[in-house]
Specification:
The complex is a heterodimer of chains A (297) and B (194).
Chain A (H helix, E strand, L loop, with lengths): L2 H18 L3 H47 L3 H32 L4 E9 L7 E4 L12 E6 L2 E13 L2 E6 L7 E5 L5 E5 L11 E6 L10 E4 L11 E10 L4 E6 L9 E5 L1 H7 L21
Antiparallel strand pairs in A: 1-2, 1-12, 2-5, 3-4, 3-12, 4-5, 6-7, 6-9, 7-8, 8-11, 9-10, 10-11
Helix pairs in contact in A: 2-3
Chain B lengths: L1 H17 L15 H12 L2 H19 L4 E3 L5 E5 L5 H13 L3 H5 L4 H26 L6 H32 L17
Antiparallel strand pairs in B: 1-2
Helix pairs in contact in B: 1-2, 1-3, 1-7, 2-3, 2-4, 2-6, 2-7, 3-4, 4-6, 6-7
Classes of the chains: A alpha+beta (297), B mainly alpha (194).
Chain lengths: 297, 194
């Protein structure tokens, strides 16, 4: 290797070491800058996908219309198309109405957010939402969606990347661990997802259950509220399988939310979570938060 | 010099195009890593110092955009206090594998793209495998399910399939501006005239 290349290599290593020693605040500032730069592209990325999808629908409709024209049924087809569009509007309206009703009914103060981008990371189950510092979204804030008359937990805010952007670490990720319990029983365990983002609906594992838990397939799993990070009674999934080990038992849980079709989510304001936590229920061993780094690492 | 700016423009374009590339559920959420592919293609065609500069810039922008600062926790749920993949890790990966890729520059210069194309796919797959190994190391347990290998393989295949087009683009750009690949640096010992 030539002397010049050795010099460049040493400079490269020096800069690399310097960058890896950036403080979390510096990294935060850099990522916010990058996010503000890429934000229009990220948003238009979803827009282009919708546009393509819309175009496909139009192409089918036009083909159908031409076919119908040959049979002089133009008016009837137009009405059919309108009805179809109305159905879509009604469906969307109902979804939004349900979400709005949930927001009004929910005891917590919620921040409604729209999903901007799904799974932007290779190895972490994450998504990006369009709410950030401007709406008082904080790291570790729980993120939920309506599930019938209740709420289902989908994850927590991993980091706030800007005024209108935050990253949500999904429940299906191994690093989003939740203190959970079998519904209507005192049996508690720790729920965790999969490593490496390999499946849309991976089997979650509820570990450290007692051997007497006797979880039944179909039984609902809810957050226990222990640890103070997540409010109690948020639905997490349902029992698929229950295995008793030598020391404890483990249940395999199927999530009830389709994480690929998430569009509108709600972030629970962190101060409300703290208020909701009953005094004396905090157990340090059950705190499942993965806090933001406080030092260089 | 003009060629380097054109390569830089290609790399910048790859970052914006990457935003529109989806994950594929059928391949266990593998995706085409255009930035990685473009960088490794560029690494075949530029001198060692320029490759290091591109590694620095591309790795930095990639981490600025996609880095997720998740702290490692052990089986008991206790935080280890360390971010699993530190900010700047992609710079290290790009620098390391870029230097590895530089070894096939003589072949690229001769117009033999078979090995470079294969190595670009291999390097892309290796990039994400190294990330996974570091994550696993922090979590204190190795887990290699079938789906993981499938995801890494498909990511590498996407890269392999796309690299000839990017190499062709680089080759045309080099012809256009009269750039000739010089065999210097770590490959000097093994150079030969064509």
């Amino acid at each position: 290797m030539s002397r010049l290349n050795v010099v460049f290599l040493l400079i490269f290593i020096g800069v690399l070491v310097w960058i890896t020693m950036f403080s979390p605040d510096a990294v935060d500032r850099i990522q916010r800058g990058a996010m503000s730069l890429f934000e229009p592209v990220t948003k238009s990325g979803d827009g282009i996908k919708d546009f393509i999808a819309g175009e496909e629908e139009d192409a089918i409709s036009v083909a159908e219309m031409k076919e119908r024209l040959e049979f002089a049924e133009r008016d009837r087809d137009r009405l059919r198309l309108e009805v179809l569009q109305m159905d879509e509007l009604i469906y969307e309206n109902n979804s939004l109405r349900q979400a709005l009703l949930y927001k009004e009914r929910a005891p917590q103060s919620l921040i409604a957010a729209r999903v901007m981008s799904r799974k932007p990371s290779t190895w972490y189950n994450t998504l990006i939402i369009d709410k950030g510092e401007n709406d008082n979204v904080k790291p570790d804030s729980p993120v939920i969606v309506p599930a019938g008359d209740d709420a289902a937990l989908i994850g927590k805010v991993s980091e706030v990347r800007g005024d209108n952007t935050a990253v949500v670490l999904l429940l299906t990720d191994e690093m989003c661990q939740v203190s959970a319990k079998l519904m209507n029983t005192p049996e508690q365990g720790i729920l965790s997802g999969q490593r490496g983002m390999l499946k849309n609906l991976p089997e979650l594992k509820l570990r450290y259950l007692s051997k007497e838990a006797d979880a039944q397939p179909g039984q609902l799993i809810v957050s226990s509220g222990s640890g103070g990070l997540f409010p109690p009674d948020l639905i997490l999934g349902e029992v698929q399988r229950y295995d008793v080990g030598v020391i404890d038992a483990e249940a395999v849980i199927r999530p009830i939310v389709d994480f690929d079709s998430l569009k509108d989510v709600f972030v629970i304001r962190p101060d409300i979570v703290e208020e909701a936590e009953a005094p004396g229920t905090t157990d340090a061993s059950e705190v499942q938060a993965v806090p933001k780094p406080e030092n260089g690492q | 010099m003009i060629f380097f700016f054109l390569v830089a423009a290609m790399l910048a374009g790859s970052f914006f195009l990457q935003e529109f590339i989806p994950f594929f559920a059928w391949a266990y959420y593998a995706r085409f890593l255009l930035v990685h592919t473009a960088f490794y293609c560029a690494a075949v065609s530029v001198p060692f110092p320029v490759m290091l500069l591109f590694a620095l810039v591309c790795g930095f922008i990639w981490d600025a955009r996609y880095h997720v600062p998740v702290q490692a926790i052990n089986e008991a749920g206790v935080s280890s206090g360390q971010v699993e993949l530190p900010f700047g890790f992609t710079i290290f990966i790009f620098g390391l594998l870029g230097a590895f890729i530089q070894g096939v520059r003589p072949l690229f210069r001769r117009g033999r793209w078979e090995l470079p194309v294969f190595l670009i796919g291999f390097a892309t797959a290796l990039s994400i495998l190294i990330e996974y190994l570091v994550i696993s190391f922090h979590r204190g347990g190795l887990d290699f399910p079938y789906e993981l290998w499938w995801k890494i393989l498909v990511t590498g295949l996407f890269s392999t399939a796309a690299s000839p087009f990017l190499l062709l683009l680089l080759s045309k750009l080099a012809q256009m501006v009269g750039y000739k690949i010089q065999l210097t640096g770590i490959t000097r010992k093994y150079t030969f005239e064509t």
